[in-house]
């Protein structure tokens, strides 16, 4: 289907009166290209195969027409939306609620892992019209018989390629096989890998195909640079840039709402005029904050992608990507906040070693190279601090001249102190300057002399090997493949001998505050660390940074998780599926299935005779996700009373 459609208004698309009233209340007038192409097809009952990036308006593209076709007299689910993460599930459910504002008695329910089953079961019993859920939790409800899809009219697969990347594609097919034959399917994906295309060909009937090209052109008047995250903490690096880089106003993009609030607070504590805007900020407060930015009362805005959409402030000279965006279009939208009205702009991107592929993808999509930047040195930061300090003196002197000499009293006090204590005026001025600066040192401490790069790389690699899974061959120092001409020739028809799996080797005890678990998926199931992290983080509502080292063996894997994981959550994670296999998660020291444990490993703090692992404290589980507490110091020896 062509996306070149004439200029339309939402009123021309055939939405129901109640939905149209909500659209007008939200303030939408002109549909985006994907909305103009998708809404009529879904209203006509056709299946839809849509290829579009995040941020193109696809949630409204499927929510508005499906809401228009609801039968509110029925109280069983008529629409099911599958989303890869609980954050997206909540976001989509909120959008449905917003667009159904004028529909009397409408109910939508988000269901995802990490949340108690009880409120979900109660809501399903009362009756809902739309369910938005992650694949694992939807399958759990189907197997329990608590989710009735007999009246289902439409199934939406949102961000299908992301579900593929996180290892949920088998669960998606399981759901597809359980829905009624007479149903509408809408599949949306930013890319169309072969597995997604196969699902579309198998389960969609004569779909209307909608492709929205990503807008990946960036303005030539924006200078783009990246800093390769290493050594310094990101916050310290950001502080250096803010102190030494001349800027008028800056937007800093973070990935989550909580990250914007936390970062803004830390910048405020460093004396910077910063504020956060995100999806939780009320519209009135958002407008007030943006006006402060325009008026020069604020210099730094810390924002999420959604909150900064449509933001147009001329004095924004810099955009800094504190967290790299998930897709190239988001990057283009972000840096488009600077370089407005023909002015030059600066875009800076923080990139960690694991995000190098995303950096290259951005360069390919925008067809523009992004230059690596060097952080300002300690000397340049100190020079900037001294310049600002001296400028404050100059400004104060100028202000005194313009105001008629209000400093006369202070001058008399300095002269009096000089006479009575026989202290030179220069010493008094230095003491007053120190009093003004307070406890914060004016200058940064000199940087330690860096070791030669070769030794630094060897040390960093050795440290990384202790805490991360082994990298792929091509990423290892000295790990290049031998030239093909040096290999022994293989006879015609001769098959390559299977390469044995390398033993992971002795496993180190977990870090303080962590416990070691075994799961029943491994190499034989074609599982990768990303599949495991994605499943556990999503179902447990656990930030991926709290998932420790993962060692994948032939038929099982070993990983570290935070201490204090509540028993109901552990029971749920036993049933979570990765690569089509149930994890059957259990503590390594309690494993009784006859499998082999890593050699040389002894659980930290484990006492013979029934003692508990040291440092274990139950609790910390709240509906909506497990939140690990601070890591505890490593406990030596058996627990008391063992």
UniProtKB/TrEMBL annotation:
A motif (Q motif) lies at residues 8-36. Residues 607-627 have a biased composition (Gly residues). PROSITE patterns: DEAD_ATP_HELICASE, HELICASE_ATP_BIND_1, HELICASE_CTER, Q_MOTIF. Residues 234-381 form the Helicase C-terminal domain. Coiled coil: none annotated. Its main location: cytoplasm. Residues 39-210 form the Helicase ATP-binding domain. Residues 446-505 have a biased composition (Basic and acidic residues). Residues 8-36 form the DEAD-box RNA helicase Q domain. InterPro entries: CsdA_RRM, DbpA/CsdA_RNA-bd_dom, DEAD/DEAH_box_helicase_dom, DEAD/DEAH_RhlB, DEAD_box_RNA_helicases, DeaD_dimer, DEAD_helicase_DeaD, Helicase_ATP-bd. SUPFAM superfamilies: P-loop containing nucleoside triphosphate hydrolases. Gene3D superfamilies: 3.30.70.330, P-loop containing nucleotide triphosphate hydrolases. It comes from the Bacteria. It is an enzyme of class 3 (hydrolase). The keyword Kinase does not apply. Residues 444-512, 590-642 are annotated as: Disordered. Residues 629-642 have a biased composition (Basic residues). GO terms for molecular function: helicase activity. SMART domains: DEXDc (SM00487), HELICc (SM00490). Keywords: ATP-binding, Cytoplasm, Helicase, Hydrolase, Nucleotide-binding, RNA-binding, Stress response. It catalyses: ATP + H2O = ADP + phosphate + H(+). DEAD-box RNA helicase involved in various cellular processes at low temperature, including ribosome biogenesis, mRNA degradation and translation initiation. Belongs to the DEAD box helicase family. DeaD/CsdA subfamily. This is ATP-dependent RNA helicase DeaD. It comes from Lysobacter hankyongensis.
């Amino acid at each position: 289907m062509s996306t070149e459609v004439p200029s339309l208004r939402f009123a021309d698309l055939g939405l129901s009166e109640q939905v149209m009233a909500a659209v007008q209340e939200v303030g939408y007038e002109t549909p985006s290209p994907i909305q103009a192409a998708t809404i009529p097809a879904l209203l006509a009952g056709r299946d839809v195969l849509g290829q579009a990036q995040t941020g193109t308006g696809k949630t409204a593209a499927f929510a508005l027409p499906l809401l228009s076709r609801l039968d509110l007299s029925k109280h069983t689910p008529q629409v099911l939306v599958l989303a890869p993460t609980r954050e997206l599930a909540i976001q989509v459910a909120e959008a449905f609620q917003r667009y159904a504002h004028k529909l009397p008695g409408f109910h939508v329910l988000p269901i995802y892992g990490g949340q108690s089953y009880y409120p979900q079961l109660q809501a399903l019993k009362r009756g809902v019209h739309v369910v938005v859920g992650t694949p694992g939790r939807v399958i759990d409800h189907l197997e329990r018989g608590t989710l009735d899809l007999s009246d289902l009219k439409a199934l939406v697969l949102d961000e299908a390629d992301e579900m593929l990347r996180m290892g949920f594609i088998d669960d998606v097919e399981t759901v597809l096989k359980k829905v009624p034959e007479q149903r509408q399917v809408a599949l949306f994906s930013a890319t169309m890998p072969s597995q997604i295309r196969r699902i579309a060909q198998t389960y969609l009937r004569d779909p209307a195909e909608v492709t929205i090209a990503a807008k990946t052109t960036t303005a030539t008047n924006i200078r783009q640079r990246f800093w390769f995250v290493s050594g310094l903490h990101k916050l310290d690096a950001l502080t250096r840039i803010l102190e030494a880089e001349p800027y008028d106003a800056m937007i800093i993009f973070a990935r989550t709402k909580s990250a914007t609030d936390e970062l803004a607070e830390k910048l405020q504590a460093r004396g910077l005029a910063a504020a956060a805007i995100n999806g939780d900020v009320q519209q009135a407060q958002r407008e007030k904050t943006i006006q402060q930015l325009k008026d020069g009362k604020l210099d730094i805005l810390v924002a999420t992608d959604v909150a900064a959409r449509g933001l147009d402030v001329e004095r924004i000279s810099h955009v800094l990507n504190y967290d790299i965006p998930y897709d190239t279009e988001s990057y283009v939208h972000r840096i488009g906040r600077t370089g407005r009205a023909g002015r030059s702009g600066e875009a800076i991107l923080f990139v960690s070693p694991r995000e190098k592929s995303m950096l290259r993808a951005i360069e390919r999509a925008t067809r523009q190279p992004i230059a690596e930047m060097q952080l300002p040195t300690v000397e340049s930061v100190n020079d900037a601090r001294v310049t600002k300090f001296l400028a404050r003196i100059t400004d104060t002197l100028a202000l005194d001249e313009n105001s008629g000499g209000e400093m006369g009293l202070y001058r008399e006090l300095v002269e009096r102190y000089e006479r009575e204590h026989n202290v030179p005026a220069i010493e008094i001025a230095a003491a007053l300057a120190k009093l003004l600066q307070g406890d914060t040192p004016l200058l940064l401490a000199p940087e330690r002399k860096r070791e030669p790069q070769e030794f630094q790389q060897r040390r960093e690699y050795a440290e990384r090997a202790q805490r991360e899974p082994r990298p792929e061959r091509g990423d290892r120092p000295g790990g290049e493949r031998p030239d093909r001409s040096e290999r022994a020739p293989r006879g015609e028809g001769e098959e390559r001998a299977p390469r044995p799996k390398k033993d992971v080797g002795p496993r180190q005890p977990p870090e303080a505050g962590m416990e070691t678990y075994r799961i029943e998926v491994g190499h034989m199931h074609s599982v990768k660390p990303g599949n495991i992290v994605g499943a556990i983080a999503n179902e447990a509502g656990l930030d991926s940074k709290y998932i420790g080292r993962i060692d994948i063996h032939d038929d099982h894997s070993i990983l570290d998780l935070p201490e204090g994981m509540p028993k109901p959550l552990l029971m749920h994670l036993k049933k979570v599926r990765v690569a089509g296999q149930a994890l059957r998660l259990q503590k390594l020291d309690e494993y009784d299935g006859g499998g082999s444990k890593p050699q040389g490993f002894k659980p930290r703090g484990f006492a013979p005779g029934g003692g508990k692992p040291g440092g274990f404290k139950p609790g910390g589980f709240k509906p909506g996700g497990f939140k690990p507490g601070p890591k505890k110091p490593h406990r030596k020896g058996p627990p008391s009373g063992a």
